[in-house]
Amino acid sequence: MQPLANVTPLKPAPRAGAVQINGISQVFKTSGADVAALSEVSLDIKPGRFVVLVGPSGCGKSTLLMMLAGLLRQTSGTILINGAPIDKPDPDRVGVVFQEASLFPWLTAEENVEFPLALRSIAKPERRAKAEDALKLVGLEGFGKRHPHELSGGMKQRVSIARGLVQDPPVLLMDEPFAALDEQTRMTMGDELLRIWAATGKTVVFVTHSLTEAVYLADEVVVMSARPGRIVDHLQVPLPRPRTYEMLSGDAFGSLRDRIWRHIRKSA
Amino acid sequence: MKATTLRALIVVALIALWEILPRTGLIPELFLPSLSSTLAAGWNEAGEYGSALGVTLYEVGISMVFACGGGILSGALVGSLARPRLLIMPMVSSLYAVPLVILYPVFTVWLGIGSESKIAFASIYGFLPTMLATAAGIRTIDPQLLLAARSMGATLTQRLVRVVLPAAIPTVLSGLRVGGALVIVGVVVSEMLISTAGIGYLISRYRTILDSPHVFAGVLLVLAMAVAFNAIIRWIERRCAIWQTGTRGGQRAADEMAAGATQPAT
Fold first, then answer.
1. CATH code reported for the domain at B54-202
2. What is the C-alpha end-to-end distance of chain A, expressed in Å?
3. Cβ-Cβ contacts under 8 Å, A140 against chain B
4. What pTM was computed for the model?
């Protein structure tokens, strides 16, 4: 038991969370042999940072994210968020945004955003007010009454982000949130996410396959190797903010992306 | 011409033919009595048809509860648990192919020729498709939705009530549509086979004395019952499953967003 965990904090809880991953390993038991998915992964994320995980398919980056969300239990090692361990989903500390299609199609955008609040029996007026704020934040004011099938792919993902943020968790996890979107929408959504991030100051852990997206969004890029997943590089992105489209063709951007690509090519 | 007007015209034409063909003698009245004589026959014996309709509706109602309630419950169970699914599903699927009407004489031996045997037969008749559809509906729920609900801290009960149930509604409704129709078939057919009451019994009794107008009056009533049932299901579908309709709305919404010009169109 952590002695400090039960002490009432003197100042209000920070809106951005610190994430500490200490020596995480994951072994999946299969009928044949045990498969090591993650091996001794350690990572320290400071509050308010935008961290992107990249790596070849099967490197366990999504597995790691599921552990941070409390949806999957690691074989060994600890995960601390704001000093307390994560062993089950805790929407107060962690919001999750999945790939497309995780909105409930029978609920309106508004009701989808309210869903995590409804689970905790928060009164309707308060729920509605919070959902409206969250939808406004993601630029969907006035679209609350629409059902998901009446929204475009990018708009659905905005609703997902609003749902992830509605409880004001210090950490936002994003599992390839823009993978299903077309190129143009993806670019716009990247800029939108950076705007929302700047406005809320959350710690973001973002998984993607796209190296360009990784460098464009991140403060730090964590590169993982193929199975068993290990961290092979952890690089800082020194590009100034706000990020602009012109940076994509700059030398600094290119050399960062090349460096990540070399790691991935080596391990894949 | 619009499809709806065309459809209405076809119905009107059929009704007109039903009146004209027997009247002109092209079809003997014994084979097809004219619509007016059918309606008159039904009207003259309104009391008899009314009480028969009461019996049939009662049997259909109770069977509906057993077939649909039981079908949905057991379908949900079988759909969500792997072990019963492996044990039961192959049996149920092959049972579905058996013409269950062969069981009806057995039911009359067990339960007599009153309403009980009809209810038992129709319940089982409608139960299978409802159960199969519900099980399929539960199994095809997007696991991402359940994962998302878990990430938001939903308990098992909350996941069942707030995710599994609403997600399964469209498939369950299509099962109800088939199951409910079979319940009506089951009741009417069993009444026609061995019975002392109900519309099926009237149809079969008037048939033996070659009273075609009265036979067709019974047929009309069964037809009306099936149409009414279908309308009810359609109404429920419209209320519960709006979200299933159409996927073209997304682009329209994105265009609107662009027209508003407050946000990039994504």
1. 1.10.3720.10
2. 40
3. 263
4. 0.74
